[in-house]
Amino acid sequence: MKKVLQLALGMLTAIGGFFDIGNLVTASQAGANFRFQLLWALALGTLMVILLVEMSGRFAAVTKKAIPEAVREHFGVRVWLVPFIVLVFLHLLTMAAEIGGIAFALQLVTGISFAAWALPVGILVWLFLWRATFSAIEYSTASLGMIALCFVVAATMHHPPRGELLAGLLPSLPSDDATKYWLYAVSIIGALIAPYMFYFYSSGAIEDEWDQSYLMVNRIIAVTGMAFGAAITTGVLIVAAVVLQPKGISMDSLNQTAFMLTEVFPFWGFVLFAASMAIACLGAACEVTLSLAYLVSQTFGWRWGQSLEPKTDARFALTYTVGILLASLIITLGIDPMKITIYTMALNAMALPVVSIPFLLLLNDSRLMRQFGNGIFSNLGTAAIVLISLVLFVVSIPLVFLGG
């Protein structure tokens, strides 16, 4: 019964919890600029995230070790140092993007600049983490985040042409603006495979005391949850393609997305958009902040765990406190959350080889994983992820500096 309950709650968390400003912005821009052409990038990213999430949960359940701890032990501090620095940087940028997303949703409702909301939003996230347990954060934000299914409903009601949708699942070359096309493609994949998700998910498995008996639960959560999360992102892309693209709106500003839902929901569309954005970003902000605290604490061997009292887990709490402050200050400077998001997602893709390859190698260590290591299918998937990550690394470098 306990496993059935955790399966249901885990699927809810995965469905409602892995949709954030990265998915919203990248999918909206892709749809507004290239209609359904970039659906293939979303499908590819979904397959990658399913494999990576399943492997990170399996690793935690079998070894009872956090990924940073295991990489440091098996490859040494020098090997782990570069991925650690890259991950801290990406976590801070992602936190800033999520806080900016909440602040922008509040700007839509109140008319007050998002920069003015940054510190109050940061304090809200901090209070939530300070007072709530891991399960409370996980399930409450995920449950509320289900409001984002309104994008799926809207996409269905627009009746998009099936032929174009199927054609979009096949990789194609852009007819114009190739730099922007590939920047959006890389950013979509980067949004789906954001490193914080794997560290949050695997650390959560340890917090929930998973063992080998949870391997099937982990697999179902990874496949079903990530697929539903991708379905919401697909809904966003379709709505942007149908609503924004015909109007010639290229989505250079988040303000242009605010009325995406009003054609299907004339009265509630604006409210649903603002609420979906705020709640999704709040859930993601909590998760990425916890992921940063997990990452730092596990790297330095500190005591860690969101379910512990802050007074007995001081360094863990101090890490997320400092992280929230730094991320909030970035938004307070008035830097556009959408700009931060699109480049951070591209950087996620660029960093994938650095942060994933050591972990993927551990999954084939028979001494560590025993009979639960990667099989033929998982190794083929691993090889594909490594190859794709290397290609993304090469493609992302010029795009991050030339795209815009």
Describe what this molecule looks like in 3D.
The protein is mainly α and 404 residues long. The chain has helices spanning 2-17, 21-34, 39-63, 67-75, 77-110, 114-131, 134-145, 150-157, 162-168, 178-192, 195-207, 215-243, 269-300, 314-332, 337-362, 366-369, 376-402. Helix 3 (39-63) runs parallel beside helix 10, helix 4 runs parallel beside helix 13 (269-300) and helix 6 runs antiparallel to helix 14 (314-332). It is globular and about 55 Å long. The model has no long low-confidence stretch (mean pLDDT 85).
Rg on CA atoms, Å: 20 Å
* Largest sheet data: none
Average residue-wise pLDDT: 85
Low-confidence stretches: none
**What is the strand content?**
under 5%
Number of helices in the DSSP assignment? 17
Structural class: mainly alpha
- Would you report the number of β strands? 0
Order of helices and strands: HHHHHHHHHHHHHHHHH
How far is it from the N-terminal to the C-terminal residue, by CA? Answer: 51 Å
- The coarse overall form would be globular
Helical content (DSSP H or I, runs of 4+): over 70%
